[in-house]
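DM from R.C. (forwarded with permission)

"hey, sorry to bug you on a friday — could you get me a structure for this? deadline for the figure draft is monday and I only need the backbone to look sensible"
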Amino acid sequence: MIDLSKVRALVIAPHPDDEVFGCGGIIHRIKREGGKVYVMYVTVGTAKDFSDKGISTADERISEIEKVADYLDFDDFDIALSGDKYHLKLDAIPQGELVHAIERGSKLALHIIEPNLVLTTSNHDYNQDHRAVFKATVTALRPASLKQKSYQSMLATYELPYHAWNTAETLSSSSLYVKLEEADLSAKIEALKLYQSQLKQADSPLSVHGVKTMASYRGLQCGAMAAETFWLKRLAIL
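My reply, with the result:
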């Protein structure tokens, strides 16, 4: 069993809302049980989208981040690479720049906060920013002498609503389930509602209905009323 009161988690979110869609439940549970949660948003920018408004601005999304961070009681958050130069273009910048942001360049970099749990996006995600962040995270977590570099004993990728839409022929089964109590799921839903620029209608996976359905489905797989699922990439018992 993992003692969540001793967890020092770093959630790496390529964009605002990824952290709530993928980890909102475990974030609330970690905080509820006395652990710490830090969220690194890799990039924020203005972008066109499939919504009634048709666009979400960087200022709008930063305002939403602040509301979500306050509601879920993040210990801190940071935007590592802000601006349209990076937003939806992380696959086009040198990987070394992205690795540096995660490893040393952000105020929440691995070298600074030394988390024992890192949660990031999947390499199988259709979104190019998400894949780039996964690869950079793996590089940033490479093992080295503990005299020079902290070691993150647990790395997992989180599930997003569109996770099944990808180019892989098959996906491995989930290797980590986190049971959500009613309070955890409720907090996740309320946090999602604060991302008004991103939340969609009930027929979309990016909706309250979609998130509740997925949580119930994952709960059925582990004997709970609701759950979030993750894919373990590293688990070291030290």
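R.C.: lifesaver. The two ends are 14 Å apart (CA to CA).
me: no worries. Residues 18-32 form the longest helix (15 residues).
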